[in-house]
Amino acid sequence: MNCAELDILICDYVDNTLDVATRAVVESHLTGCASCRALVEDSRAVLSFLEGVPEVQPPPQLITRMVQEIPAAERAHSPAKRTGGSMGWLRSWMKPMMQPRLAMGMAMTILSFSMLGRFTAPVKQLKPSDLDPVKVWAAVEDKSHRVWDRTLKYYESLRVVYEIQSRLKDLSDQEAGEKRELKSEPKSGQTKPEGSGK
Q1: pTM to 2 decimals?
Q2: What pLDDT, on the 0 to 100 scale, is given for residue 162?
Q3: Which of 12, 16, 78, 113 lies deepest, with the highest CB count within 10 Å?
Q4: Is 185 among the domain residues?
């Protein structure tokens, strides 16, 4: 093994991710090469220094600023494409609407307005977890299932009320029919005149 090959494997060697055979070859090269040994020691010193450095937290408004400024920067740096005809105009008009960030933006807008309408709380800063498409889709799917369940429950409640009303109407019609039959039947002891046809 030469120094250039060791230079490629030094990160894996310091991280202790090399297999046994390759590690043995690297260590045999390190016993004979002082410059590579110094390079390995420097790499270990850098790693130990980085482990002691506290983790830097990004400012809370960073995500919001990125979401707002990236589309403007893309428009500023993209070359203006001119295509002739009505199809070119339609394509240029539809291009922003066909991008996933518009769908995500619409979902976030609807979610934000629904939350504002429901809780009337101040708008908070966006976090990376708020932009997770899986969570947004799960929330939309959960909401749609809840709306479907409520609609189905409302429909079934209406159906029960309709059935109760129709049965009460049938019962009242049946009672009215029985009363009419009782009125139309001749009383006991009375006979119809023989000459009447009715």
Answers
A1: 0.31
A2: 79
A3: 12
A4: no
